[in-house]
Structures are given as C-alpha cells and as structure tokens.
Write a structure and sequence with these properties.
Chain lengths: ~290, ~250
C-alpha cells in the first residue's frame, strides 16, 4: 500500500515538472516571437530593391545598406580566409601531432576559454596590434584580422571535434599501408572530417556576422559613403549601420534599422541553415 | 630461413608486460593461426610485425622481430617503407569513406604509383583476387560504405593486396561477419596462400582448424604451444592447450 501512494506522488511530480518545463520553453519562444513580430512589422515595408542598392544618406528614405552589405561580405570573406587555414592547421596539430601531456591540456583549456572571452576584448587587442602597431588603420584588413582572432577558437574547437570523430580504425588502415602521418591526415582524416570542419567554420561566421563591439573599437563606426575597393579601405558593416541608425532620433531611421535587422537575421538564418544541411548530408554520407 | 620470425620478443604497455619472451618462426606461403583467450597478446604480437604498436604511446619492445632475416626494429629500417611490404586486415572492416576504386588504389598512391593504366590494372587484379570483382565491377565509383559488411572486409583485403605485399597479417578478419561472409573470407585465405604468407589471429577455433597449416596458442602473453594445426587440435602436448581447445576456459 505504501509503495502505491509513493508512486502516485512521483507521478504527480512528474506531470508537474513536465508542465513547468513546457512553460519555460513557451516563455522563450514567446519572447522570440514578440521580438520577431515587432521587428518585421516595423521594417518589412522598408525592404525593397533601393534599400539594398542605395548608399547611406542623411535622408532616411534614400538611405540604403549597399556599403554596409559589401563591407560585411568583404570583411567576412577576408576573416574566413585568415581564420580557416590557421585554425584548421592548429586543430590538426593539437589533435593529430601534439603529445597528450599536461601542457597540451593547458593549451586545450585556454582555447576553450578564449572562445568565451567578451568580443570587445578582442576589439581592444585588435586596436592596439592591427590598427596602431601594424598601422592598418580603420581598414577591412584590421577588422578581418580582429574578427579572425575572435572566431579562431571556435574554428579550432569545431575542427578538433570533427577530427576526433574520425575513427582510429581509418588511421590504422592508412598507416598499415605505409602512409606517413601527413599522408594519413591529408588523404583520410581531413576528407572524413571535412563536413564537420565546414560546419564549424560556417557557424563561426554566423557568430562573426553579428559582431559589433569589436568592430566599433577598431574603427568601423564611421560614415563611409563609398564601397571599399581593397583590403586597406575604410568600411562599415550591417550591424554597425543598424547601430548607427538606432541612435538617430527620426522615426524613419528606426524603420531602416528594423529593415536592416531583418536582412541580418536572414543572413544568419541562411548560414545556420547551410551548416545544418551540410552536417546532415555529411552524416548521411559518412557513417563509420 | 623463416619468412617471419621473432627472437626473445618482449613487449610492455607502460609497466604491464603483454608479451613474454616469444620466439617463433613462420614459413613462407603458409597460413599460421594465432589463437588464445582475449588479452593473451596474440593481436599485439601480430602487430609487432608491421610495427603498428609504434603508434601506441608508452610501448617498449625488446628482442627481435625479423622479416626475411632482417630485424625490423633495427635503427636503419624505415618504418613507413617497411609497412608498404606488409598488408594488414583488421577486425572490423575499415574502408575509407571514398569510392571502391579509390579504396583499392590508396596503397598504390602511397607507394608512389602514378600511372593510371597500372593503377586500373592493379585495382582489377586485387578485386578479382579478393573475389569481389564480379559484385562491384559496375559500381567502382560508388562509395565503399554502401557495401555490406562482408563485401567491405573483402574490399579491405583487396586494398591490402593491391600493392602486392609478401605478407598478409589478419587480425580476426571474420569476427564481425555473418557465417556466409566468413566462409567466403576463409576460402579467400586458402587461395591467397599461394602468393602470400598469411598470419591470422582468430577467436574461432574451428576457423583456425579450417584455414591454417600451423597454429600457435598464446596465454597470458606467453607462447604456450606452436605446432602443426592438426597436431594442436588432435593431440596437443601442453595441458593448457588441451583445456583451451576443448573449451574448458577462454
């Protein structure tokens, strides 16, 4: 008899917990939905072709995101170009070559910590090293180097995870044929981990795409009337353009900001979508 | 002269001794089976001959392992070159996530073969020898991972023999396969004997009895008995061997 009562109590608690968890989930979704509805209702009317093709202007209805968009794409392109090879190489070294000793563990913990450092710290670092000491000024290059530092830990961690997931039996098969470590890494490990590596890189880009603080520090918060033509030109990016607009008093600029946010969200959504698609495709193709 | 030989071979994993003073020789063009309970050192011993134990940290080896009378642990032996002359097949089929063709051609690329026609020819020969050609000849471009487990293992055998090694080391090659696939692998081993010296580690004593000419029984890191397979299975001279093959332990 005693046992039965206990079971019933546990069942009630179980139900209560389920509804509580549901409530929490619902709350999160509700906030997100409200935010999205607010942004979309404000900004969707502003999105048309001229919004994408216009240069920034003093008049809100003539103002567009052309320079910010080009600036953002070039910045991200350069960031990936810098962070991807270095991050992947570092991960390969740590995972395949480095000995597993105390020093390696310290490095590992530090990389994980670096991924959690507030981004504005990277901005300050970039300002000193790239903008001032290296003398790149408020250029795309300085911004890209700063963002590359920011996403490097994410690329390294993701690449290491992808490499770790490659079963050892494949390495053994390759070594058994007389392949060297580099031949094994290049011909077997990297191709097998490539889907995971790319997923990590894309996710890191979708992190970088929304970064504003470090770019403000390295000098992207400037009025740039023309599109950048080289890596040493001045630039601005979409999040900064949005930041800029939201600090204006006129309602028209707020509408512009909302429209900019929609575009930015669409970009992030797209990148994450590609990452998920890649991961699924890779999982289906490579079942170890 | 033996094809493979070990002289007073000892191996430690850290402080734990896994192989104790093993001396034995394997003749060319024979099949030799290593049997014994789990953890007895038979796989470890097998992997000494292509120096796969080098990949494990904290392994220490004393004594000699010889192939064609050359100690492969001597200083002037290049381990990568050495492994190219020995084929290995593992317990679980481990094809690369590449096409069937690329899997078999892998070793040829590693030894530096660039001629397309030679590679094509070698791939075909290896797949025929591994009794897989008829099943895959129209789908060489397909992923090796789409093959069944038994086919994958035969593909791994093809991959190992494509570079024409003189020795084939097999570490429980049929333990993950169904009986039909196992029978195919065993038939294959029998046919490959003409060209290769084969050493096979197996848990399955019937298999050892079916495929091998000589059998070595290992227990707790020691080589207990090594003799003709027929003798080991009908009239072993050591009590431990007798107990193991009759299923009293292991």
């Amino acid at each position: 008899m005693i046992k039965r009562i206990k079971t019933n109590k546990a069942r009630i608690k179980d139900q209560l917990f389920k509804y509580f968890a549901m409530l929490c989930t619902g709350l999160c979704l509700l906030v997100l939905a409200l935010l999205l509805i607010d942004i979309i209702s404000k900004g969707i009317g502003r999105i048309n072709w001229s919004f994408f093709s216009n240069l920034p202007s003093r008049h809100f209805d003539e103002s567009g995101i052309y320079t910010a968009l080009i600036g953002m794409v070039s910045l991200l392109f350069l960031t990936v170009l810098i962070a991807m090879p270095i991050g992947i190489m570092a991960a390969i070294y740590l995972q395949e070559y480095g000995t597993k000793n105390r020093f390696a563990r310290i490095v590992e913990i530090n990389i994980a910590n670096l991924a959690g450092v507030p981004s504005v710290i990277y901005g300050i670092l970039g300002l000193q090293i790239f903008v001032r000491i290296a003398g790149f000024g408020n250029s795309i290059l300085a911004g890209a180097l700063t963002l590359a530092l920011l996403i490097m830990p994410i690329v390294i961690v993701a690449t290491r995870e992808a490499i770790k997931a490659v079963p050892n039996s494949l390495r053994e098969a390759s070594f058994g044929m007389g392949a060297t470590k580099w031949q094994t890494t290049r011909n077997v490990v990297i191709p097998a981990a490539w889907g995971g590596i790319l997923t990590g890189v894309i996710l890191s880009v979708s992190r970088a795409i929304g970064e504003t603080a470090p770019l403000i520090v390295v000098g992207a918060l400037v009025y740039v009337p023309f599109i950048p033509e080289g890596p040493l030109d001045q630039y601005t990016t979409l999040p900064i353009q949005i930041f800029n607009w939201t600090s204006r008093p006129q309602q028209g600029f707020i509408t512009n900001a909302a429209a900019g946010i929609i575009v930015l969200l669409a970009f992030t959504f797209l990148l994450n979508g590609i990452a998920i698609w890649l991961r699924n495709r890779w999982n289906n193709k490579v079942k170890f | 002269m033996y094809k493979l030989e070990s002289k007073n071979l000892n191996l430690w994993y850290g402080p734990k001794q896994a192989l104790k003073d093993i001396s034995m020789g394997v003749d060319a063009n024979t099949v030799t089976a290593f049997i014994g309970p789990s953890g007895c050192g038979k796989s470890t011993f097998l992997r000494c001959f292509n120096r796969m134990n080098d990949l494990i940290p904290n392994v220490r080896i004393t004594g000699q392992a010889l192939i064609d009378n050359i100690n492969i642990y001597s200083r002037n032996v290049d381990v990568y070159e050495h492994r190219k002359s020995i084929g290995m097949v593992f317990q679980k089929p481990n094809p690369f996530p590449k096409s069937i063709y690329e899997n078999v051609a892998y070793g040829l690329h590693i030894i530096g073969e660039n001629s397309k026609s030679i590679i094509d020819e070698s791939v075909e020969t290896a797949l025929k020898q591994a009794a897989l050609w008829n099943e895959v000849k129209d789908s060489l471009k397909k992923s090796a991972l789409a093959l069944s487990g038994g086919q994958q293992q035969r593909l791994c055998i093809a991959r190992a023999i494509a570079v024409k090694p003189s020795i084939l080391l097999m570490d429980e090659p049929a333990s993950a396969l169904d009986p039909l696939s196992t029978a195919k692998i065993e038939e294959l081993i029998y046919n490959l004997k003409k060209e290769y010296s084969i050493v096979i580690v197996t848990h399955n004593m019937q298999q050892a009895g079916r495929v091998s000419d000589k059998t070595a029984f290992f227990y707790l890191g020691e080589l207990i008995e090594y003799d003709n397979t027929s003798k080991i299975f009908t009239n072993p001279s050591k009590e431990a061997t007798q107990n193991y093959i009759t299923g009293r332990f292991g």
